[in-house]
Write a structure and sequence with these properties.
Length: 355
């Protein structure tokens, strides 16, 4: 694979080859960050056969990646409160650019490309003002930073593009943090999480939780082809919250998904990742703290299944169904009795990104 990547890179440099595609990077089905036995970190491409297509070093712990919609290029983000994001040519196997958060900002570990791939949008913390912002980067000109816009709340985490458009949806977790205090949460009694929809640079709709749910920090989201947004909460109260998963369509109220209290308790108040199944009738959520994966029916908004998987976090749809990545290096199909693939020495991190 390394020699093929070098060959492709050489052809592109001379202008003798067509523009590279994801096929030139081994046609990965997913991207995932991982920890390595030597203490290092990498971004990996995973094929539909669950074998590695590439492994490219990162300068620090990764969280999630944003995949360019056309060319085999990914932006790997540092874990919050990181200040770097690495642009990787996955076909050539090399770093091509590095994004550095401006002074007074840090990244939250997620980003999303515009529909045509021209712009990259990043969730960031303006920590002196306790304000969430979305950074705007020019992917066509070396990822130069062009500016920023308001995220519509505090603590923006995951950002997604709505299907077939450049409308963005942002999970504003509602939690104020400051690098001087590490990862300490500074405003739990008054936090106000929401989903914010951004169009043409401005927030034009927000969806908030009921007042008794204000300690449910909205962190991770998935978007269906029909515009349904599924979201997972990280509960900040001392007792178990009444729900950890919700659904939203623009112009409608939020629907919270229901589950028996015992099932909620076993998730330990923490949803690490969210994914909608290919048929969009089910939403899967993971809890690395609880060692569980839960599945909810979209139509009824009720829990339908719960599967134990140690340190489960990344989850995404793809060929063969929903895939879950574990910090043990295992890959699972939801409901399986044993791992469907094992990658010894890799500790899969928070997210699987479907291509």
């Amino acid at each position: 694979m390394a020699s093929r990547r070098g060959f492709i890179a050489g052809l592109l440099a001379t202008g003798l080859a067509p523009a590279a595609t994801w096929a030139d990077a081994g046609a990965p089905a997913w991207l995932a960050a991982a920890g390595l036995p030597n203490g290092g970190f990498a971004l990996c491409g995973i094929g539909a056969d669950l074998e590695l297509r590439f492994r490219i070093a990162l300068p620090g712990r990764g969280h999630a990646a944003a995949a360019h919609p056309a060319r085999p290029e990914a932006v790997a983000f540092a874990r919050r409160p990181g200040i770097f994001a690495i642009v990787i040519d996955c076909a050539a196997g090399r770093q091509t650019a590095q994004l550095t958060a401006p002074e007074g900002r840090h990244f939250y570990g997620h980003g999303a490309f515009s529909l045509d791939g021209r712009w990259l949008y990043t969730t960031e913390n303006d920590y002196e003002a306790a304000r969430g912002v979305i950074g705007i980067w020019d992917a066509a000109h070396g990822y130069a930073r062009l500016g920023e816009m308001d995220s519509g709340g505090t603590g923006p985490h995951e950002i997604r593009r709505m299907p077939g458009s450049d409308v963005l949806v942002v999970a504003n977790g509602g939690i104020e943090t400051h690098p001087a205090s590490g990862r300490t949460k500074l405003n739990i009694p008054v936090m106000q999480p929401n989903l914010a929809y951004i169009e043409d640079g401005a927030v034009n709709e927000t969806a908030e939780l009921a007042p008794d749910m204000h300690k449910g920090s909205i962190r991770h989201i998935a978007v269906s082809a029909l515009g349904l947004v599924a979201f997972g909460l990280q509960w900040q109260g001392d007792e178990d919250g009444p729900a950890l998963v919700g659904l939203h369509r623009r112009g409608e109220p939020v629907r919270l998904c229901t589950a028996p209290q015992g099932d909620l308790h076993r998730m330990q108040g923490y949803i690490g990742s969210v994914a909608l199944a290919a048929g969009q009738r089910e939403v899967a959520v993971t809890s690395p703290r609880g060692g569980l994966v839960q599945t909810y029916d979209v139509a009824t908004a009720q829990l339908t299944a719960s599967s134990p998987i140690t340190d489960a976090c990344g989850v995404a749809p793809g060929p063969g169904g929903m895939l879950v990545a574990s910090g043990t290096g295992d890959l699972w199909r939801i409901g399986g009795a044993r791992p469907c693939a094992q990658h010894e020495g890799l500790m899969w991190d928070n997210h699987l990104v479907a291509l």
